[in-house]
Design brief:
The protein is an alpha/beta fold. It has helices spanning 12-20, 33-40, 51-61, 95-104, 124-135, 158-164, 174-184, 197-228, 232-239, 262-269, 275-301, 325-336, 357-361, 374-377, and strands at residues 2-6, 25-29, 64-67, 75-78, 113-116, 145-148, 167-171, 192-196, 306-310, 340-344, 366-369, 391-394, 407-410. The strands form 2 sheets. Strands 3-2-1-4-5-6-7-8 form an 8-stranded mixed sheet, sandwiched between helices. The chain has a 5-stranded parallel sheet with strand order 10-9-11-12-13.
Length: 428
C-alpha cells in the first residue's frame, strides 16, 4: 500500500514514519523546503522521544521519503494544522485542510481512501471535504472512501501511543469506515472503534474539552483559595481521596494544539448550547494574567529586579510552545519593561533563551516556574545559591526545595503574596 501524508508536523511525521516502518510505502509532503530537505537527510525538526530512531529505520529501509509535492497513492492522509479564526468564538480555520485537498486532487484515483486526521469542527468532513471530492466527480463510499480518524496521542509518548491507543475510525459511509479500518489495522494494536465521521469529530473534541473544563475548575479553585487563604493544593489532595472525585491539577493556563483550541470548535459550532465550555475557556485563558499579577505583586513585595522564567513549553519534556501560557507570560512580563526577565528552558532552541542555568539564575530575585520539565524536578536547594533573593513561584508544583532560606510559593499558598497596589503596567 502506498500512502501520502500531507503535513509533517508533530502528528503527520510520526504517523508517516510508523506506516513506513510497517511495510508501507510512504511519501510525506510538507510546504517547508528546509523541513523536507532535512528529513531526507535524517534530521528532525521536532523533538519527540524515539522518533529519530524510527525515522532512521524508515530511511534505511527506503520506505519513507519527504517531498514538496504529493504523488499518486492508495491512501492520502491529511494531517495539517487547523488553527482558530480570529472571531468571537475562535472558530475552526479549515483553510489548510482545503488547500491540502486541492493539492492531492490531481493525484486521486478511483478506489483511493482519503483520511482526515486533522482535528476539525463537527461536520467538517461532510461539509467541506466531501463536496470538494464530489465536485471532482467521485462518489463517496463507492468510487472513493472518505474517513475522519483523529489522532489521540500525548506528546512525549507519540510513538508508543500511535500503536497501542484505541483509534476512532469515522467514515462518511459504512464502506468508508471499513476502508479506514483496513488502513490502520496495518500497525495499530489498540481497539479500532468504528463510527461515523461526525461522531468521530465531536468525540475527539470532547476528549480535550473534558480536560479543559476540569482544569478550569481547578484553576478557579486556586483563585478562590487565594482569596480565602486556603491551600488549594491540599484541598485537591484531600478531595481526591474521595472514591468518586478526581480533581485535575491547576496551572498557569492551558496550551498546546488540543486543549487550548478544540473546545472553541464546539462552542463556535453550537454557541447557544455551550455556555459551560465557553466559561471554562475564559477561566483558563485568564490564568496567564492571574500569574502575571501575582508575579508583579511578589516582585514589589520584595523590591525585586530580576525574574528567571523556568520553562516556555506548554508541557514538560517537549519543545512545543504552541499556544503555551508560559510563552504568553514571559512575553507580557518582558513587555512590561519593569524587570529584567530571563528565560531558561533546556528543551527550547531560541536566541533569547539562556541555556546556562547558572547564568540564568545569577542575581535573580524570583524564579517563576511555568513548565514541569523533569530537569526542574531534579534540582535541590543548592541550585539557587547565587540568587539575589531566594523567592520561587512554582505554578507547576514541581520543585523539591526544603531550605529554610527559600521563600517557596506555589498555587496552593498564594495568599502569602501581599496584595499590594500594582504600579506595573497592566496588559490586556
Amino acid at each position: 500500500m502506498k500512502i501520502v501524508t500531507m503535513g509533517l508536523g508533530y502528528i503527520g511525521l510520526p504517523t508517516a514514519v510508523m506506516f513506513a516502518n510497517h511495510n508501507q510505502d510512504v511519501v510525506g509532503v510538507d510546504v517547508n523546503c528546509l523541513t523536507v530537505e532535512q528529513l531526507n537527510r535524517g534530521i528532525l525538526h521536532i523533538e519527540e522521544p524515539g522518533l529519530q530512531e524510527e525515522l532512521n529505520h524508515a530511511l534505511a529501509c527506503g520506505t519513507f521519503k519527504a517531498s514538496l509535492t504529493p504523488e499518486k497513492a492508495d491512501v492520502f492522509i491529511i494531517a495539517v494544522p487547523t488553527p482558530n479564526h480570529n472571531d468571537d468564538l475562535k472558530s475552526c480555520d479549515l483553510s489548510y485542510v482545503a488547500n491540502a485537498i486541492k493539492s492531492i486532487l490531481p493525484f486521486v484515483e478511483v478506489g483511493n481512501t482519503i483520511i482526515l486526521e486533522s482535528t476539525v469542527a463537527p461536520q467538517s468532513t461532510e461539509n467541506l471535504v466531501q463536496p470538494m471530492l464530489e465536485e471532482a466527480g467521485f462518489i463517496i463510499g463507492e468510487t472513493i472512501y472518505l474517513v475522519h480518524c483523529p489522532e489521540r496521542v500525548l506528546p512525549g509518548q507519540i510513538i508508543h501511543e500511535l500503536v497501542y491507543n484505541n483509534r476512532i475510525i469515522g467514515g462518511v459511509t459504512a464502506e468508508c469506515t471499513q476502508a479506514g479500518k483496513e488502513v490502520y489495522e496495518t500497525f495499530v494494536k489498540g481497539e479500532l472503534i468504528l463510527t461515523t465521521a461526525r461522531t468521530a469529530e465531536l468525540s475527539k473534541l470532547m476528549e480535550n474539552t473534558f480536560r479543559d473544563v476540569n482544569i478550569a475548575l481547578a484553576n478557579e479553585l486556586v483563585k478562590i483559595s487565594a482569596d480565602l487563604d486556603i491551600d488549594a493544593l491540599k484541598v485537591i489532595e484531600m478531595a481526591n481521596k474521595h472514591p468518586r472525585v478526581n480533581l485535575h491539577q491547576p496551572g498557569p493556563g492551558v496550551g498546546g494544539h488540543c486543549l487550548a483550541i478544540d473546545p472553541y470548535f464546539i462552542a463556535a459550532a453550537s454557541p447557544d448550547y455551550s455556555p459551560l465550555i465557553q466559561l471554562s475557556r475564559e477561566i483558563n485563558t485568564s490564568m496567564p494574567q492571574f500569574v502575571i499579577t501575582k508575579t508583579n505583586q511578589l516582585m514589589q513585595q520584595y523590591s525585586g529586579k530580576k525574574i528567571t522564567v523556568f520553562g516556555l513549553t506548554y508541557k514538560g519534556d517537549i519543545d512545543d510552545v504552541r499556544e503555551s501560557p508560559a510563552m504568553e507570560i514571559y512575553e507580557h512580563l518582558t513587555a512590561q519593561q519593569c524587570f529584567e526577565v530571563v528565560a531558561y528552558d533546556p528543551h527550547v532552541e531560541a536566541a533569547f533563551v539562556e541555556k546556562n542555568l547558572a547564568v540564568a539564575i545569577n542575581n535573580a530575585d524570583l524564579i517563576l516556574v511555568l513548565t514541569d520539565h523533569s530537569a526542574f524536578r531534579e534540582m535541590d536547594s543548592t541550585t539557587f545559591e547565587n540568587m539575589n533573593q531566594k523567592n520561587i513561584l512554582d505554578t507547576k508544583n514541581i520543585l523539591n526545595v526544603s531550605a529554610n532560606d527559600i521563600n517557596y510559593i506555589n498555587l496552593g499558598n498564594l495568599a502569602r503574596i501581599e496584595k499590594v497596589i500594582e504600579q506595573t503596567t497592566q496588559l490586556a
